[in-house]
Amino acid sequence: MDLENQATIKRLAEEHGAEHLVVVLGATEAEGLELAAETVTAGDPSYAGPLAGVSLRLPVYHILEPEVTEGLPAELVEEKLGMMAMVADVGRISEVLTRRRQALMTA
Amino acid sequence: MAVVKAAAYILAHAPDLVRYGSKPWREIAQNPALGERLRSHLRPFEAAAAYPPNQVFVGNLRPDALHEVPEPWYAHPVPEAGPHGRFGGLLPQPALYRALKRADQFDLIGLDTRWLADLPGGEGVRGWPADRIAQAVAAEQALPLYDGPQQVGCIRPAHEQDESLTAQVLLENFAAKATGAFALEALLAQTGLEPAAVEYILSCSEEAVGDRYNRGGGNLAKAIGELTGCGRATGSDVKAFCAAPIYALVHAAALVEARVFQRIAVVGGGSLAKLGMKFLGHLDRGMPVLEDVLGGMAFLVAPDDGQAPRIRLDAVGKHDIAAGSAPQAIMEALVARPLEQLGMKLCDVGKYAAELHNPEVTVPSGSGNVPRTNYRMIAALAVLRREIGPRDMEDFIRARGMPGYAPTQGHIPAGVPFVGHALAMMAAGELDRAMFIAKGSLFLGRMTQLSDGLSFLLERP
Questions:
Q1: B382 φ, ψ to 5°?
Q2: A82 contact residues in B (CB cutoff 8 A)
Q3: Any idea which architecture B2-104+169-303 has in CATH?
Q4: How far is A73 from chain B (nearest CA, A)?
Q5: Which chain A residue has the Cα nearest residue B394?
Q6: CATH class entry, domain B310-459
Q7: Residue B332: closest CA among chain A residues belongs to which residue?
Q8: What percent of chain B has pLDDT over 70?
């Protein structure tokens, strides 16, 4: 996750409290997604950014996961996300992020 | 109507300039041991020349031929591949250094007299003695130039305090100028057109030529034209991040159609800053550093002759400022809307050429397979428009897409590497219509959060 995004998330967590935040990711590469999810839960694994050593433990979802899309107007989902839902491997994305969320609950 | 008469593509092998790419430069400064690791992963010229994606780029193989090459591609060189290409060719590093010197009118680049003496074609170049080079590197903030382990020259800054004229910035600009000129020369050689017949030159290269008062002032086009002997042309630059080549071709077609100029060369030189951009991923996987070439390309745009493919200016796909940056909004604006304007469907386009980054370069560093994602988006649009079923997406992609093969040089992969192949396929009656699409990440410059994109259709007459 780029350093600027890390800084923004850290600032928001300080301003609003981590317990009031959820991270919604948009990138579709499963590998990059896993790193981003790790960054906002356990901390920056590359130890390069503002979240190095900062464990925010934020719940993390992808915009295409049903937990998110079911809360949105169906027309909006079709108009803005319909194409990407066919492009991305939503099953794999969901698997990666569910694992991350479960680890948060048990840790 | 304006047509694209010809397209030329060159690659200049620059393994010993990889260290001056932005990413290697920053990483090696932090961890000098990386420099040695990087050097041990560089390829010889013959390996770069026989690399299948590079052979596709210079026109010796069709893009779809890569479907038949087993991965990894770098381990499967094209048998008997040489440096000559149907659309241009590949240049070894010494030829690039000679060209950099030829592009230098201010004696900023010094090549070692003794090294030049042993170099084929080196005799016509005025060199610097070794002690002059050593002095410039030691005391004048010059950057050393290497050929393998040997230091063979240097480039010095043009001003002591001007951050726009440091040795590194100048090297970037000379690299774009020299490779752009190579591509333009290849275009002229291919068409038999006299340099004096070119009336206007548009450069779509990614560099910022200028001084402290005029950073990015530009007009590399004219400098390239001068170097190529286009004495009766003038020119200017088109800047639009990675989408610039599409803008430049559309501008050129419009100038031809409006009868302002009749023979326009659109030219793009290579990007030094992007050499070795993904090298860490390559080192981690024990691969050769594949971003070791500078790209160059040139296109001739001229009035309709009834034979060459036409650029459809009545259906240019544009991404409006208010369209938003959602991928779906961008692809609808660039792909679906222009076709709708012409009463066409997505399946009426034989080939889509969108951001043809070589995936073997990008996947190891986690950047994904850019062309494949683009093709999945276009296929998904076709599903949303009920032109094909969800199960037909893979067939659509295989038929109307292609594997990525362009070096990751920003503007170079912008769809336009396929123009040369499209011209050849249209001349052979294998293709009627192709769409060229490029997107630009305007947000990188911090002046806006916007994305960008432009597309055009090329049609067989």
A1: -65, -35
A2: 328, 380, 384
A3: 3-Layer(aba) Sandwich (3.40)
A4: 17
A5: A87
A6: alpha beta
A7: A83
A8: 100
